[in-house]
Design brief:
There is one protein chain. By secondary structure, this protein is mainly α. It is 78% helix and 0% strand. It has helices at residues 5-27, 38-66, 70-93. Helix 1 runs antiparallel to helix 2 (38-66), helix 1 (5-27) packs parallel to helix 3 and helix 2 runs antiparallel to helix 3 (70-93).
C-alpha cells in the first residue's frame, strides 16, 4: 500500500497548527475581566495530546521507512522533532512543571 505524502503533510500541519494556536493565544494580552490561567489550559492540552502525536508520527515514520516512502518518513520525523521541541518549551516555560 502506498501512502499519500500530501495527506501526512496536511495532518501534521493541522496538528502542529493547533499547538501554534495555543501558544499564540497565551501570548496575547488579556482584555476585560478574566479569571484563571490560560497557560494552564495550554499545558493540559499539550500534556494530553503529546502521546497521541508521538504515536502517530512514530508509527507512520516507521511505516514510511519500511515501505521506502521518503517523503512520508521525513514529514513524520519533522513532526516528531516539532512535538519534542514543543514539549521541551512547555517544560522550560513552566520551570520543570513546578
Amino acid at each position: 500500500m502506498k501512502y499519500n505524502w500530501l495527506i501526512h503533510l496536511v495532518l501534521n500541519l493541522i496538528m502542529y497548527g493547533f499547538y501554534g494556536l495555543l501558544w499564540w493565544n497565551v501570548s496575547q494580552p488579556l482584555r476585560g475581566n478574566h479569571h484563571g490561567d490560560r497557560a494552564l489550559g495550554v499545558a493540559i492540552a499539550i500534556i494530553f495530546t503529546t502521546p497521541f502525536y508521538l504515536l502517530f508520527n512514530l508509527i507512520f515514520a516507521y511505516r514510511g521507512y519500511k515501505k521506502n516512502q521518503r517523503k512520508v518518513f521525513f514529514i513524520n520525523v519533522l513532526g516528531l522533532l516539532l512535538c519534542i521541541l514543543n514539549f521541551s518549551y512547555l517544560y522550560y516555560k513552566t520551570n520543570g512543571f513546578s
